[in-house]
Amino acid sequence: MSSVLYNVKKVKNGKELWDAIETYNRDYYPHSLFPVIDSHLEQIQSRDNKYIILMMQTFFVNYYIDYDTPHWQNIVAEVVKKTENVSWLKEYHLLFRKKFDVSFREQTKKNYIEKVFVQGGGIDIAKKIVSFM
């Protein structure tokens, strides 16, 4: 973990962040055009795990950048998809989604509003109000 966190870069803006991500891609997947076939499955899995943790931690370190644009949301969605079924990253995955995934935050907000209205006015009214959001 320390070797991964050592490579996390703090940047000033989205352009520098994109450059850092491209550097990570080159470092972790240098043979993307010509994949190395003789790698062991454990080595491939280890490399993928390190890369995804590096990506997630880079987002956390650079939390002040606006990730609500479609470009960044596509990258966030890819990171979320790669960590969905990783049991040992379950809490980290949830924290990442809460912080950076706009669709997750919107859905959580709608669920909360629906619960509040269900207690006050009934299920049908709550669903109708949430549908307008």
Identify the overall geometry.
Answer: elongated
End-to-end C-alpha gap:
41 Å
Strand content: under 5%
Q: Roughly what is the average pLDDT, rounded to an integer?
A: 84
Outline the structure in words.
- With 133 residues, the chain is an all-alpha fold.
- It has a domain at 2-79.
- 71% of the residues lie in helices and 0% in strands.
- The chain is built from seven helices and no strands.
- The longest helix has 21 residues, at 41-61.
- The N and C termini lie far apart (41 Å).
- The model has no long low-confidence stretch (mean pLDDT 84).
Brief summary of the model shown:
The protein is built from 7 helices and no strands. By secondary structure, the chain is an all-alpha fold.
List keywords for this structure.
single chain; elongated
What is the element layout, followed by pairings?
Blueprint: H1 2-6, H2 14-28, H3 41-61, H4 70-83, H5 90-100, H6 102-121, H7 123-131
Helix pairs in contact: 2-3, 4-5, 6-7
